[in-house]
Design a protein that fits this description.
CATH topology: NADH Oxidase
Strand content: 5-15%
Number of helices: 6
Structural class: alpha+beta
Strand order of the largest sheet: 1-2-4-3
Length: 208
Amino acid sequence: MSNSTNERTGLLNEVIQNINNRRAVRKFKSKTVERILIEQILNAGRMAPSALNKQPWRFYVLTEKESIHSISKEIAKVTVKHVAKLGIKEIVKSILHYIHSPKDFSFFSQSDFVFHDAPVVIFVTAPNDNEWAPIDIGMCCQNMMLAAKSLGLDSCPVGLSKFIEETKMVSRLGLSKKETVQLAVLIGYGDEVPELKERKKDNVVFIN
């Protein structure tokens, strides 16, 4: 097989390999992430496409361990309250949503089940009046996670991060009333290698 064929099929394509190797990591080493690497990851996020090129994202970066743990505890309290409001069937569904393998049944008993002791937490916000923001932020965060992987780091997207707006800790971020937390991305040196989950192959329709 020629090199050009290999490149077309992705066998030698580093970008595709990086996409295939990225995993959501929930166990991190205590090693500090260098500021220059964080900046590179943020720049990758800034390069994402956005509707009308509005670039709606705004990044709030936490690297101080105590602040991360304090915010995580407050978000955890709000999460428990939300789960408590659900019926028993919904509670079970909610728990199953958060566990990814048998070992994850200890999810809610972890000391930090929101940020998983990650050394870097990046909250990503967008204006309240931007209806396309969720899509734009999704692409932005994917760029950051792939960039992190290419730099020898691991990552994990955290949807529960939006609950910070229901806590007193939201003042730590200094959000304006015109923006909303869309997602948070955890960055750090992974201390686990999650297995690849099977990908669906029956979800493509070619239209002639």
